[in-house]
Amino acid sequence: MLAWLAPDNDQPLIKVPVQAYDGTPLENENGLNGRKQLLEQLEAAQHIINAHKPDRIVMFGGDCLVEQAPFAYLNERYGGELGLIWIDAHEAPTEQDSEIIQRLGIKTAGTKELMNSTESLKEWIKESGIKHLAIHLDLDVLDPKVFRSLLFANPEAPYNFSAAGTMQMPQLLHLIKQLSEETDVVGLGITEHLPWDSIHLKNLLGEIPILNN
């Protein structure tokens, strides 16, 4: 659906094969549910990327894992000189998280800060000498009052795992445009799109007799 919604262009659209969920519970392997299936999808993505050897990649997710193979490829493609912007909604970091962030030298900025200015991001790009950039866009960063096609916005089930985003679409668009003006954006991942209305409508239509005779 994301590919259908995206603007038409001359870039090839390639589908990574993902086996449809049939209701069978996923096995926990080494602490990871569905490890076998995830590795199969990762390997398939790697084969596709290596066959085409693109200079730029756009991923329509899936969750955050869909970017592992593409971003790893792009980092190698540009000699380890790939910067990464991670746009996502999270609770305030714990003390342990803050220590890790500080130790790794990861720069952070909140929605309120970015509402006023994107200068901190521009400075980070310049100070780090970033010539090529990948952007992770998790749609849960958007305010669910204006965009409901999100995991935790399921109208039929409570979801208390992740903080809801507060960013507005014009603000998000401005942010991405500013980043695109500052450096060469070579990767974009759009993840965690869950169109509940479309899913429920599809299920309804699938049960209407006249549509299935």
Automatic annotation (TrEMBL):
Gene3D superfamilies assigned: Ureohydrolase domain
CDD domains referenced in this protein's UniProt entry, alphabetically: Arginase-like_1
GO cellular component labels: cytosol
Alphabetical keyword list: Hydrolase, Manganese, Metal-binding
UniProt keyword Plastid present: no
SUPFAM superfamilies (alphabetical): Arginase/deacetylase
Annotated InterPro entries: Ureohydrolase, Ureohydrolase_dom_sf
GO molecular function annotation: arginase activity; manganese ion binding
Domain of life (superkingdom): Bacteria
Protein name, as recorded: Arginase
Protein's organism: Paenibacillus elgii
